[in-house]
């Protein structure tokens, strides 16, 4: 299964309240060691992707650079599709399993800083780089620990897409903000 994050389409499914309830999105938290690893990964990555979608939607409204708005739209489209896929896998593979505590890993930034001493575009780039780094760490772990080949394939696609987006955002940060 090849995953082209740039052309994926879909819509966000059910609200993330059950997947995100009780999760610590910014720091370390113990995972649910009794739950299957793949279920923990799915629950964590759905919550993580929803955080990226929320930040990207904010960028669609507030970013001044058209390049950032295009990136934000790409993030929304790709990650909504991936959420839909993960929800389908979760339902098929673990229909009777309650929401887990997730993987217990640092997810990176889950919101854009409110520090208005920096332009919004700079704050978005900083938050999304940290956020993507969290996803890459989770995906690299999943490549080693996941039971289902589909999870490993998705993890590889996440790593490739988000490393590329980080490189692009780092270039923009240097060009636009001298950092």
TrEMBL record:
Gene3D superfamilies in UniProt? 1.20.1260.10
Superkingdom of this entry's organism?
Bacteria
Q: Protein name, please?
A: DUF305 domain-containing protein
Question: According to the UniProt entry, which residue ranges have a biased composition of type Polar residues?
Answer: 1-10
Which residue ranges does the record annotate as region Disordered?
A: 1-30
Which residue range or ranges hold the DUF305 domain? Answer: 38-172
């Amino acid at each position: 299964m090849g995953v082209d994050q740039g052309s994926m389409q879909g819509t966000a499914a059910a609200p993330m309240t059950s997947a995100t309830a009780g999760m610590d999105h910014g720091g370390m938290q113990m995972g649910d060691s009794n739950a299957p690893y793949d279920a923990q990964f799915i629950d964590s990555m759905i919550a993580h992707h929803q955080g990226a979608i929320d930040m990207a939607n904010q960028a669609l409204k507030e970013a001044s650079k058209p390049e950032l708005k295009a990136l934000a739209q790409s993030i929304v489209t790709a990650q909504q599709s991936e959420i839909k896929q993960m929800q389908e896998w979760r339902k098929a593979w673990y229909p009777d399993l309650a929401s887990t505590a997730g993987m217990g890993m640092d997810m990176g930034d889950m919101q854009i800083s409110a520090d208005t001493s920096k332009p919004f575009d700079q704050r978005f780039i900083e938050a999304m780089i940290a956020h993507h780094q969290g996803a890459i760490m989770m995906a690299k772990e999943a490549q080693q620990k996941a039971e289902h080949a589909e999870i490993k394939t998705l993890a590889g696609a996440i790593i490739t897409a988000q490393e590329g987006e980080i490189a692009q955002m780092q270039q923009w940060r240097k060009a636009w903000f001298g950092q």
